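Risk register update: the risk of archive-format incompatibility is retired. Evidence:
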Amino acid sequence: MTDVWVVVASSTRCRIFTQSRHNAPLEELEDLVHPEGRLHDRDLASDKPGRAYDSSGSGRHGMGQPVSPTEQENIRFAKTVAERIDAGRKAQAFERLVLMADPRFLGQLRQGLSAATRTCLSTEIPKNLADADPDAIRAALPFRI
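Archived output:
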């Protein structure tokens, strides 16, 4: 069993690293790429929002979406990453978990984790270093994780 999983994520990429000792270098276990996270709303949704009539009067207005298509795609990717982390916990691949992600994506990722996996969570770092090299990621982590 690996001691720690360090998950470094953004809306476009997630990298999972392992670390066996507190001062050991990070070893990349998996790299998940999500190119849809770079798309704009107009590229993800093909139609304009629907139209509706007012219940009283003769007004007509557009029906907005509570979540933009881009945001919905990011939530979908966060759920995919959370499911992968949950599967790792169930397989006893790690004892402790460190999450490092863009602050907004970190919140979405945290919501997708199961309660049992959240108990393994030891550190959260609100930084986007998904494209950084392992040495830069290790430098951003606490000395002892």
